[in-house]
Amino acid sequence: MERLIALIELLKNVQLFESLNDEQLHHIYSIANKQSFSPGTVLFQENDHGSAFYILLKGSVKIYTRSTSGEEKVLSLIQAGESFGELSLLDGRPRSASAQTLESTTLLVIAGKAFNDLLRDQFEITRQIMAELCRRLRDTNQHVYDLTFVDSRTRVLKNVILLANRHGSRSGNIITIKVALNFNELAQMAGVTKQALSQVLRDLEDRSILKFGLNEYKLDLARLNG
């Protein structure tokens, strides 16, 4: 019972379920399968048939695509409290990207039929998913604009601030962002070369705007705005 209560509390931190009551959250738990994965596990690949919806309870997952030459492009970083994998369940088409764990990760996995039944029965969840899809579309539009019109330095700065806003924890003027992405993956997200990323990050570090630790960095808002 204690484990169930703890899991329900975790579900309350999932943005998708923030407006649901305990009875509704118990229903979510009853149709989901809790699974743990080691770092580097591929959950699904681009063009796979979509069979499940994922809710991230612990850890992190990267969403990415590969070109025909094998070059990887990281599209987004999924952290605890976020969800993914709904697109192919909604339109019935193959996965548009791949998903891989970056660290030890715990997920709730909901099979496709149960997910669609949930959308039919819980309008608030449907509305939240629609809002999330709209946000991703806006992000894609902005990313295309940035790649077309914005220089590399500005793209790196925008990506740093975006990660801070979405995944950071703030204490005063300092935002700590825990990111399991490696250097190459960070460059892919920003749409810049590794050399360009290195130059910008080195400059931010020299100016004490960014401080780096193990799988995390600290952003000083006072110095950034100074």
Q: How far apart are the termini?
A: 51 Å
CATH superfamily of the largest domain: Jelly Rolls
Number of strands: 12
Strand order of the largest sheet: 1-8-3-6
Query: Which strand-content bin applies to the residues?
Result: 25-35%
- Stretches where pLDDT is under 50 for at least 5 consecutive residues are none
Helix and strand sequence: HHEEEEEEHEEHHHEEHHEEH
Q: What is the fold named in CATH at topology level of the largest domain?
A: Jelly Rolls
Percentage of residues assigned to helices:
40-55%
The biggest sheet, with number of strands, parallel, antiparallel or mixed sense and barrel status, is: 4 strands, antiparallel
Q: If you compute it from the alpha carbons, what radius of gyration comes out, rounded to the nearest whole angstrom? A: 19 Å
The backbone outline, from C-alpha atoms, is: globular
Secondary-structure-derived class: alpha+beta
Number of domains: 2
Q: In the CATH classification, which architecture of the largest domain applies?
A: Sandwich
Count of DSSP-assigned helices: 9
Instruction: Report the average pLDDT across residues.
Output: 90
CATH class of the largest domain: Mainly Beta
